[in-house]
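cron nightly-structures :: item 1 of 1
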Amino acid sequence: MRSFCSMAVLAIHLQLALDVGRIHACNIPVFRYALQRWEPDNYELVVLHRQSLNDEQLELLRSLEVAREDPVSPVNINVRLVALDQPLQQQDQQLLSQVDPPDVSPWMLVRYPAFTNTDRLAFSAPFNTETVQALLDSPLRRVIVERILSGDSAVWVLIESGNQLQDDAAEQVLKRRLQQLEKTLQLPGPIENEIDSLFPTDASASSDDQEYPPIRFELIRVSRKVENERAFVSMLINSEIDLHEFDEPVAIPIFGRARSHFALVGRGINEENIEESCQFLVGACSCEVKSQNPGADLLVRANWESFVADEDYGDESSLQLTGLGSLEIEQPQAELPDEALPAEVTQQEPTHPVEDANGEVQDVPLAKVSNERIYLSTVVILALGLFVVTVGTVLIKYRQTNGPNGPEGRLQ
């Protein structure tokens, strides 16, 4: 009896889980979901000094604060001073144990945001105007931000090894495979029996005829020796625990709000691995928590919120990008009050094509479709519950009558 009831309760829970899954399943691609909702975490810049900072260095500190609060292009960084001639806190002692004591003062250590899967520093250099500028921004990062905001699914960065034959071979493999995947990969389609608000398609068209927004990948090649990119290259190379140990080409896709994905190294830059990475980026977002996804936030200057319009995070609305002159985004027209509409025009509820019993297609309001689905799910759950109660009652009565303690059982 207990086993039967447990199985019945499990069946009810399974039905509930399936219903919730159908309602809340996410068909937004990872790269769009990340751009829409994953805010980049802040890096920490620790300035080590033995003497008091001079006026020029204090002004440099103030410029960092201004850059962090810049409304046009803020940078995701926090700044902290550590005086080496004073007793150190435990966290600073642990930090200094990872590096050789710098001979130059002041010196800066740049730490990755929390939850980054590495214990290495993102960057380390003397604290001066040149190194701070290289840390905060670079031409390559500006291109990456521009490409992402123009609609690219991801920007692949190929970090050269210094061996031209290996670097050229890796570039050719990446170019060829990325061009193929742009044509063959598909974005997630609508959920069954649901209207897809992110990628609306013609309901009368077959699955083969449905058109999806284009998938685009950009490939950028960078040398480790370029001076104004050395801070950015350092962030990429140290974003994984052992990545700095390789002297081979390294390919890293960047997506969302400048977040890296798993790096491919040397022979790992092959068609199979490239496809696997791209498939993840354009596939349905199954885990909405950023820290539970692979990758690391990168340090860039960009006001993502001003480009991404998504006021209602509870709605899987289409991603709208604004602020770039080359993008032509159709803005929704303002709704007019009923009295402002012409007499022959009436407001209608959005409809969903449904086939009736005679095989004819009729338009049914979306609200009615959703309500009917919820109603049917509720009926199924109530029916299962009633069935469990009825069968349980019958079995209990039977055991009371015919069991060892019942009238029939005591006569035996």
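cron nightly-structures :: done
The chain is about 40% helix and 15% strand.
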